[in-house]
Amino acid sequence: MTTLEAGIPSATANARVVLRREMRELWESMKGLTVLFSYTVLLSIMSYVAASDAQLNLLDARESVGVIVQVAIGLGALAALVVAADAISGERERGTLEALLVTPLQRRSLIIGKLVAANTMWLAALIVALPYVFSLASGPGVAADAVAVLVIAGSLMSIALTALGMAVSAVAGSNRVSLAASIGMLLVLAAPSQLPTVTANGVLGSILIRANPVSAGLKLASEVLIAQKSWASQWTLLVSPAVAAVVLTVIAVALSSRIELGDAR
Amino acid sequence: MRERSQTNPAVSCQEISVRYGDFVAADRVSFEVNEGEVFGLLGPNGAGKTSIIRALTTILQPSGGTAWVAGSPLSEPMSIRLRIGVLPESNGYPNRETAIEYLTFYAMLFGVDRQAAAPAAAESLQRMGLTSRAHHRIGTFSRGMRQRLGLARAMVSRPRVLFLDEPTLGLDPSGKEDVLGYLSTIAARGTTILLSSHLLDDVERVCDRVAIMDTGRIVSTGSVSDVARDADVGTTARVALNPADVLAALNAVQSAPFVAAGHVDEARRDELVVQLRTSTDSANQLATVLLRHDIPFRSIELRGARLSDAFLALTSRPQIPA
Prior knowledge:
Strand order of the largest sheet of chain B: 6-7-8-3-9-10
Shape of chain B: elongated
Structural class of chain B: alpha/beta
Distance between the termini of chain B: 58 Å
Number of helices of chain B: 11
Oligomer: heterodimer
Low-confidence stretches of chain A: none
Helix content of chain A: over 70%
């Protein structure tokens, strides 16, 4: 009996194999669909409330669009983050990691495959959110802007947050630690968006918001959709989400070399 | 890539040490496994067996020493992983996947294209008697079936060297027979097998050679008879008596010069287990001692040194407080 004469598979080929399996695991099981269903229910409730408030003049129509876009981005990115945070630590905890690590699967292929699969959670959330945002934004005539903010800022934030979750998952001692640390970091990153207006508009507040990829993305939604500022004046708010997406992805892939079984002896 | 010639051992472990911080799990461990050989790595819990297997399967970076596996040095982990199959100690399964999906995925990780991966997976399942379960979810599998699935996964790439950590764990007697028979068959076809097990009867049946580890070191290596000779465990005699006479018999035989040790069988209170110093000592000498002390006995059964005797003699056992 001899080894199958296939040669060492390329990193790209193995990343595709991992991606295909992760997609099946996420979408053919109830896991992804359950998260997506919860996302849809929450978004429906929020949209109904926002639309009702707008009709009763409790909320400006543009403001309700801004809120819904922020909610859609926040919840969608959170869902992708949770999937990513479970990716490596979950394999470790379920005892399936060792069998993977003794194959010719490059560790970076494992991370890349899982990273892309986790981002499909955001992609699905985006597809669900688009009709809600489009119908709410059509009234005040900001549909194009709302969809653009949702797609561009949401996607950059999702890529950054899934990479963050994956990096934590690669080094976390347990799945619980990975999930708690990832969600905790998201909350810390989202905190500056809740700063009082005076503080947020100050020099320090402004720097804090612009340097933070989560608060910058959410700020873009409020500036473009609610404050009616132009894209030309606000595009710099996309810098930190874009930089975070690239840097955190590089960090997550680099941390693949530190994936360990975790149960010494 | 550097390759060793076919005449070299399939596994050559030279002075390998594994440390976890200050703890030394394996200390300068050396052994060789020849092509087509079934080699047993034995030892009590914490002896360092799993650490050695993880070092040889490139999961752990050893803190010292060198090793060659399937013709490649540890510095070329991808070449090694391409040629080995592993049934690890931590053996979890994705419950939602079917057996065929699971093995097809693993075949593809070895570079097998999609069209060839499914037949390779089906063949591996068939070898482990799991064809009828190919399209069932792994979550519905019994423990024994999962163990066979793990073996099928380890074999899906047709490896040159198989590393098996407790391969018969959880199998019923017929399942165990099937697996042991299969291991013997693939070894006869040239696959090298390095297995670690606590089931010494299984090891004795299938292994050509064994190494016994204790507290991170190899304390004996060779064929089962070599190891028994190294351990100087001699012959064991089982003496059946009336329960009332057991303690008197124990006192009588323990003072005899040809007796190394004796104890009452904990499972059967009417049997005395006597370790004789050399295999030339016979039942007659034992019978003479008992008759001299007027202790009647029903039978004396002599048994040659077994792997389990050598194992117990060579390894340290934790003391359980009374």
